[in-house]
């Protein structure tokens, strides 16, 4: 690789004083400071400075340094004016500057649903993940929960370099052989608050690793919680609670703060420290809060993930909760494993019985005093007479005279589901029915409401409103049925789960796969009730939540098991094993359906399929990837060497003839035909893939099978067999895809040796020019 020549030492020494004076003059003009992240070519540090910190401090006397990054990322974050940031960005050693952005978290029975069994299969062969450390970037941890017990655990892996940081209500002694590390990162938020941004509210927060929100405790215990008997959420989902990798160690990195969100500068600091501490897996259930995906070189989660991957750390990220809208998937970098959400075979039914005798089906986790048995209550829909805000049951929107003593219908959207129930309760309502709109379809999640309430699908909601319009005195009651197991069909792609296609690089299919993310029981903080509302004074050891945030740690735990069983596997090999063995059928042996439509899902909905740990342990073949492969991919996107270096740890160079982005050796195949204005796009494309034999048999032959699901689309594979031997562990093949008649097309390629099936989805997209 060609390297970028550092500026001569003399030039830098002459430049720095001038630069400092210039910035000082610029800042004489009154400007509001902002927080920025600076990516620096660390190789160019002048030898006169003993450390990078000293060098960065010299770059501007008026910049307030926040974090210094030196593991997954080289550079710093600082508060300074936009003019000063602009000048500093022209420094020859500064590769990139991007503003600090706010992000949000993407917010029992699931291990069994994934095929994990005590003393059998992957749990047994990996010793439940005991030698792996999972770093969880989230809202912190509540360490006293039984899920974080270290009973009967062996010594912490000797390579571990992490620590337990002291903070309010968090002595370092809270860490143990299970919770091996806990840190918190607040400098970005403190700087933002000083400039008028969202501040950390220390009346409801802890300036320590302690979790005041609950999200981090829930995700950490989902990934690696210990076995806890007689677990439940107020009587719902009773059973043995456990994480996917029950013996894996947990390191909590608090980068998100209750009510204030998560700032890129703190997230990047969490990545940097987690890798430096020695984690093996990073779980990050966080995503952009503005619905816009930044290019990889401007996305600190993508940049931090690349640095982690380059150090051998597997990164699992959530796909976002903005589905079923197309192109809503987030965390798009191909070196991250992006996880969507599916249902499991457990639900919490509740029924709405109308005054005309009709019964509507819904779900609820309400556990308080039920409505009086045998009594019917007046039913009202405020949106019929009081407008949009009342139909959504927004704060202060309900007239107590209208809802007092009644069951209130609230439309889903614009505010948290549980907050609507609090609005109804405060206005004097006795119950609530939360009705989906068309965008949510029939997708339902349970909530621990503060009053008798349940959620119903779009069709049931329409029937409810129709009844109110036609009945002179509409009445209803709500009954709660507890926990129901063995639900069919399952899994189903959750309606909220982020969907493809990939808005940045259509040549990479995202999400990669789905995992359990609906009604997941896991440990909970003692700082807030199960709704997460400040006014909810209830306490519970476990809570049931839904979201791709809950799906992501399932894959993090699965990665811990696979890395424990196969220490030599790279992050790409671990992901490949999960994707090529993922299931595309439900527990009826029918294609996995889409909750939002009721129809069969596509790879844009579920990626390669639903995580299936029974098969991932022994995938037969894997699609391997190296740092250079990802660099070649970015070259193929048209990035220049300096832009790519913002993402990578080292200078890079692109070949004169750049490869197609589709040739990244990814476990899925996504081919994009770009139609240019006035001309017709190419009819077909050929892509190359390489498979590596990781099976027990060295001498083995694999043959391909292709299934095309779209009219007019054709797929051919050469050669017609792959022969592996003790000397030949890798083999390449070519897939030629011809576009079908529609805008998109789907197919499946499966390589089989009779014992293994290595399955890859194929997607064809026609990309129209912007008008």
From TrEMBL:
Location, primary (coarse class): secreted
Subtilisin-like protease fibronectin type-III domain span: 663-764
GO biological process, alphabetically ordered: proteolysis; system development
Signal sequence residues: 1-24
One Pfam match: PA
Domain Peptidase S8/S53: 129-587
GO cellular component, one term: extracellular region
Cell compartments where the protein resides: Secreted
Keyword terms: Glycoprotein, Hydrolase, Protease, Secreted, Serine protease, Signal
Every Inhibitor I9 domain range: 35-105
Gene3D superfamilies the record matches: 2.60.40.2310, 3.50.30.30, Peptidase S8 propeptide/proteinase inhibitor I9, Peptidase S8/S53 domain
Domain PA: 378-464
GO molecular function terms noted in the UniProt entry: serine-type endopeptidase activity
Family indicated by similarity: Belongs to the peptidase S8 family.
Name recorded for this polypeptide: Subtilisin-like protease SBT1.6
Originating organism: Iris pallida
Lineage: Eukaryota, Viridiplantae, Streptophyta, Embryophyta, Tracheophyta
């Amino acid at each position: 690789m060609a390297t970028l020549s550092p500026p001569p030492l003399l030039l830098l020494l002459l430049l720095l004083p001038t630069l400092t004076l210039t910035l000082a003059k610029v800042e004489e003009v009154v400007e509001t400071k902002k927080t920025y992240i600076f990516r620096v070519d660390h190789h160019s540090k002048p030898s006169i400075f003993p450390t990078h910190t000293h060098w960065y401090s010299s770059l501007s006397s008026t910049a307030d340094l926040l974090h210094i990054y030196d593991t997954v990322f080289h550079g710093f974050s600082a508060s300074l004016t936009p003019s000063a940031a602009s000048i500093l960005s022209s420094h020859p050693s500064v590769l990139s500057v991007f503003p600090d952005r706010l992000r949000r978290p993407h917010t029992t029975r699931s291990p069994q649903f994934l095929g994990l069994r005590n003393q059998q299969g992957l749990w047994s062969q990996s010793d439940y993940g005991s030698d792996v450390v999972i770093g969880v970037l989230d809202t912190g941890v509540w360490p006293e929960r039984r899920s974080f017990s270290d009973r009967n655990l062996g010594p912490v892996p000797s390579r571990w370099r992490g620590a337990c940081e002291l903070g309010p209500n968090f002595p370092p002694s809270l860490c143990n052989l299970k919770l091996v590390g806990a840190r918190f990162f607040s400098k970005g938020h403190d700087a933002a608050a000083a400039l008028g941004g969202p501040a950390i509210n220390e009346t409801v927060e802890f300036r320590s690793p302690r979790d005041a929100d609950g999200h981090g405790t829930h995700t950490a215990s989902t990934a690696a919680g210990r076995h806890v008997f007689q677990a439940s959420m107020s009587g719902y989902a009773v059973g043995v609670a456990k994480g996917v990798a029950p013996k894996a160690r947990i390191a909590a990195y608090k980068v998100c703060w209750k009510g204030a969100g998560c700032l890129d500068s703190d997230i990047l600091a969490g990545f940097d420290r987690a890798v430096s501490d020695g984690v093996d897996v990073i779980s990050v259930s966080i995503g952009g809060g503005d619905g816009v995906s930044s290019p990889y070189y401007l996305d600190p989660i993508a940049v931090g993930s690349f640095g982690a991957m380059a150090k051998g750390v597997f990164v699992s990220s959530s796909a976002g909760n903005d589905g079923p809208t197309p192109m809503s998937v987030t965390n798009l970098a191909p070196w991250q494993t992006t996880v969507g959400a599916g249902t499991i075979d457990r639900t919490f039914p509740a029924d709405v019985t109308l005054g005309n005798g009709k019964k509507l089906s819904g779900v609820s986790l309400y556990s308080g005093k039920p409505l009086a048995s045998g009594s019917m209550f007046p039913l009202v829909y405020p949106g019929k007479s009081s407008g949009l805000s009342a139909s959504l049951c927004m704060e202060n929107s309900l007239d107590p005279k209208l809802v007092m003593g009644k069951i209130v219908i609230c439309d889903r959207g614009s505010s948290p589901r549980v907050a609507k129930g609090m609005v109804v309760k405060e206005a004097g309502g006795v119950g609530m029915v939360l009705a989906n709109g068309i965008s949510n379809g029939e997708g339902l999640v349970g909530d621990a409401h503060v009053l008798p309430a349940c959620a119903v699908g779009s069709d049931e909601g329409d029937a409810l409103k129709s009844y109110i319009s036609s009945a002179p005195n509409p009445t209803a009651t709500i009954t709660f049925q507890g926990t129901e197991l063995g639900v069919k069909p399952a899994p189903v792609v959750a309606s909220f789960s982020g969907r493809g296609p990939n808005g940045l690089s259509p040549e990479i299919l995202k999400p990669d796969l789905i995992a359990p993310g609906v009604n997941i029981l896991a440990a909970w903080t003692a700082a807030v009730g199960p709704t997460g509302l400040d006014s909810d004074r209830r306490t519970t050891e476990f809570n049931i939540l839904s979201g791709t945030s809950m799906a992501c740690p399932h894959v993090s735990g699965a990665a811990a098991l696979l890395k424990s069983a196969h220490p030599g596997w790279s992050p790409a090999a671990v992901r490949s094993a999960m994707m090529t063995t993922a299931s595309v059928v439900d527990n009826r042996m029918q294609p996995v359906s889409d909750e939002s439509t009721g129809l069969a899902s596509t790879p844009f909905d579920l990626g390669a399929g639903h995580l299936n740990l029974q098969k991932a342990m022994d995938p037969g073949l894997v699609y391997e990837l190296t740092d250079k492969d990802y660099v070649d991919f970015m070259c193929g996107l048209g990035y220049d060497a300096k832009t790519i270096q913002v993402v990578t740890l080292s200078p890079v160079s692109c070949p004169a003839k750049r490869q197609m982005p589709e040739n990244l050796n990814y476990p899925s195949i996504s081919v994009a035909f770009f139609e240019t204005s006035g001309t017709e796009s190419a009819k077909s494309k050929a892509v190359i893939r390489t498979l590596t034999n990781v099976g027990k048999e060295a001498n083995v032959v694999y043959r391909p099978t292709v299934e095309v699901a779209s009219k007019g689309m054709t797929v051919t594979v050469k050669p017609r067999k792959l022969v592996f031997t003790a000397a030949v562990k890798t083999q390449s093949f070519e897939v030629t895809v011809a576009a079908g008649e529609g805008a998109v097309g789907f197919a499946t390629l499966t390589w089989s040796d009779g014992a293994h099936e290595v399955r890859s989805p194929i997607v064809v997209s026609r990309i129209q020019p912007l008008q």
